[in-house]
Write a structure and sequence with these properties.
By secondary structure, the protein is of the alpha/beta class. It has a domain at 556-657: ANL, C-terminal domain (GMP Synthetase, Chain A, domain 3). It has 20 helices and 30 strands. The longest helix is centred in the N-terminal third of the chain and has 17 residues, at 122-138. The protein binds adenosine-5'-monophosphate-propyl ester. Adenosine-5'-monophosphate-propyl ester (PRX) binds at residues 282, 328-329, 404-407, 429-434, 455, 516-518, 530, 532-533, 539, 544.
Length: 663
């Protein structure tokens, strides 16, 4: 992986949990973790049955804990429950009812100014969710229908998600930074009946035109010539930014007007354990994003238990996960996990450095945030902006820090520990994926000694292993593929509408085991060190981007003949996207064309997928069988000397033409 991930060896540097922290933690010692972990692996069904009984509220008990036939898992078969009931109704009539469920801070208007604020207690959130669930029903939504949610980071995003779960509709949240084309692709694939969006969202002082993107998605066609009108019957629009938007009568309705027409009596539907809960699209190594499907009971159990033990949630915590609800981290650790625990979850709408680079620290101090969960990319950016910004604020409320989304380099870990945690706060580096639903490899803060740069050891019930190409476990300190040997409750249940691809991608690489797509190494203590993706998926600033998707966006431009996209190490974002592009005959490579192509990708996918660097080439290096030699391109992109076997290269001269970033 990148140099910046290996330049410090902290492998022998161990941070033991502080005894005061351990004394109050849910899991108080390493011995206690090991005992529970061993039990969870030895008798998984007994373990999960006990946890499901203790942690979740059921309408009807299950008959069978697990029905497992590779690659199909059914957990808690025959049971019935409801996610919104577990996150909301469960707390009514308890002291938690009047506690803040969501604290929301909007994007601030000016330097030094607070953003708009809103707090919803569990009781208030329950009320809002019931109202909106009735709005969904009134607008024709039935159990099992799919709904796209395309909203900014506002409480209504959580309200819409919970309202779907209340009536058994399946939500698919689309990150607000994605384009009209991405919205259309997700509707085509999920066959959604409704889109919930907003007039606009605020981002760095500008308005993101969400409703306009939805309107722009309507005329787009899929490969079979279908357009959105075929399935989308209604668009519900939240008034947020106050900008002018077009309205299509009969199809578009205002959120606030609809809510005014319904009452708040909406009993939660009794849902089967395996009823689809949500679909979340994520990049794969080929083609369009895959619709990861999660179901009701197993997902909720995973989100709830990991939130409780990894973040060591307590009643008095103010917990802040900085992820957007458009990503899985926002699903499991802004909405479902914390609310199922009766915790206070903070949501922030804006960017970490708008209007000034102390935005996060201002919020920590203002609300007395006790737990902060963010991405290594953000931490590296804060390091770059300088210590003076966090030092201006009182961060003494913090007691636990977390990271997710990409490997954290030891330098960033140490900075987080020293400058933000003031050497008092444990750090939980949590490894997991959209597919896993919840955290899989992680320290438990009162129990696990940590080392900067490793996610340490598996969570209860999770059996990861590092294996070779034959699927055999490799000795400690040898690299290999990371697989998971046993099914777990919050695992994905499939790819929406594509069982074949589900089996191929996840269950065929190492037959019988779940293949993560990540490379990994275990050290002498058995700690897992994630190296990064080993498929053609890049991790750019904690966002998963498939190189194939960016390539197909590039070649959809009429001036491009061929494109190959690879990653290069980037000190800030972990990886940066480099595109090698050949142009159609007669088209000249210019800096203006480079901008045009970057914007084209932005329009096709979203700004997160814009290549950092576009290099024009006369030809791409290929093997005699016509395969693009990505290994060589990666070396060229990172400026490394070209090594290894080039004898199968069709035309050696193309290599010399690729090196320059100039036109
Ligand atoms: O490569 C791993 C990396 O992010 C991938 C999953 O991306 P996504 O599904 O978008 O989910 C991100 C949030 C859970 C993984 O395959 N990754 C995630 N967490 C870590 C990580 N790599 C190293 N260390 C982590 N803590």
């Amino acid at each position: 992986m990148a140099d910046n991930f290996t330049s410090l060896s902290h492998e022998n540097r161990i941070f033991k949990p502080h005894k005061d922290f351990s004394a109050r933690a849910h899991i108080k010692s390493f011995a206690q973790y090991k005992k529970l972990y061993n039990e969870s692996i030895k008798s998984p069904e007994k373990f999960w049955a006990r946890e499901a009984k203790n942690e979740l509220a059921w309408f009807k008990p299950w008959k069978k804990v697990l029905d497992w036939k590779v690659p199909s898992a059914k957990w808690f078969v025959g049971g019935q429950l409801n996610v919104s009931h577990n996150c909301l109704d469960k707390w009514l009539g308890t002291p938690t009812a009047n506690k803040a469920a969501l604290i929301w801070e909007g994007e601030p208007a000016a330097p030094g100014k607070p953003g708009e604020e809103r707090t919803l207690t569990y009781k208030q959130l329950h009320h809002e969710v019931c109202l909106f669930a009735n709005v969904l029903k009134k607008n024709g939504i039935k159990k099992g229908d799919r709904i796209l949610i395309y909203l900014p980071m506002v409480p209504e995003a959580a309200i819409a998600m919970l309202a779907c779960t209340r009536i058994g509709a399946v939500h698919s949240v689309v990150f607000g930074g994605f384009s009209a084309q991405s919205v259309a692709d997700r509707v085509f694939d999920s066959q959604a009946k409704m889109i919930i969006t907003a007039d606009g969202g605020f981002r760095r002082g500008a308005v993101v035109p969400l409703k306009k993107n939805v309107d722009d998605a309507f005329p787009l066609n899929d490969a079979h010539g279908n357009c959105l009108t075929k399935t989308i019957e209604k668009v519900i629009v939240l008034k947020r930014a106050g900008n002018e938007v077009a309205f299509t009568p009969g199809r578009d309705v205002w959120w606030h007007e609809e809510v005014a027409t319904v009452d708040a009596n909406c009993p939660a539907e009794k849902m089967d354990s395996e009823a689809p809960l949500f679909i979340l699209y994520t990049s794969g190594s080929t083609g369009k994003p895959k619709g990861i499907l999660h179901t009701t009971a197993g997902y909720l159990l995973g989100a709830k238990m990991t939130s409780k033990y990894v973040f060591d949630l307590r009643d008095e915590d103010v917990y802040w996960c900085t992820a957007d609800v458009g990503w899985v981290t926002g699903h499991s650790y802004v909405v479902y996990g914390p609310l199922a625990n009766g915790a206070t979850s903070l949501m922030y709408e804006g960017a970490p450095n708008f209007p000034e680079p102390d935005r996060f620290w201002r919020i920590v101090a203002k609300y007395g945030v006790t737990i902060l969960y963010t991405a290594p990319t953000a931490i590296r950016a804060f390091m770059k902006w300088g210590d003076e910004w966090p030092k201006k604020h009182d961060l003494s409320s913090l007691r636990l820090l977390g990271t997710v989304g990409e490997p954290i380099n030891p330098e960033a870990w140490m900075w987080y520990h020293t400058v933000i945690g003031r050497k008092r706060c444990p750090i939980v580096d949590t490894w997991w994926q959209t597919e896993t639903g919840g955290i899989m490899i992680t320290p438990l803060p009162g129990a696990t000694p940590t080392k900067p740069g490793t996610a340490t050891l598996p969570f209860f019930g999770i059996l990861p292993e590092v294996v070779d190409d034959q699927g055999n476990a490799v000795p400690h300190n040898s690299g290999g593929k990371l697989v998971v040997r046993k099914p777990w409750p919050s695992m994905l249940r499939g790819l929406w509408g594509d069982p074949k691809r589900y089996k191929e991608v996840y269950w065929s690489e190492v037959p019988g085991s779940y293949f993560t797509g990540d490379g990994c190494r275990q050290d002498k203590d058995g700690y897992f060190w994630i190296v990064g993706r080993i498929d053609d998926v890049l991790n750019v600033a904690g966002h998963r981007i498939g190189t194939a998707e960016v390539e197909s966006a590039l070649v959809s431009n009429s001036k491009v003949a061929e494109a190959a996209v690879v990653g290069r190490p980037d000190a800030l974002k972990g990886q940066a996207l480099v595109a090698f592009v050949t142009l159609k005959t007669g088209v000249t490579a210019t800096p203006a064309l480079r901008d045009e192509l970057r914007n084209h990708v932005g329009k096709e996918i979203g700004p997160v997928a814009k290549p950092d660097d576009i290099r024009f080439a006369e030809a791409l290096p290929k093997t005699r069988s016509g395969k693009i030699m990505r290994r060589l391109l990666k070396q060229v992109a990172s400026g490394a000397e070209i090594k290894g076997d080039t004898t199968t290269l069709e035309d050696l001269t193309v290599l010399t033409k690729l090196g320059s970033a100039e036109d």
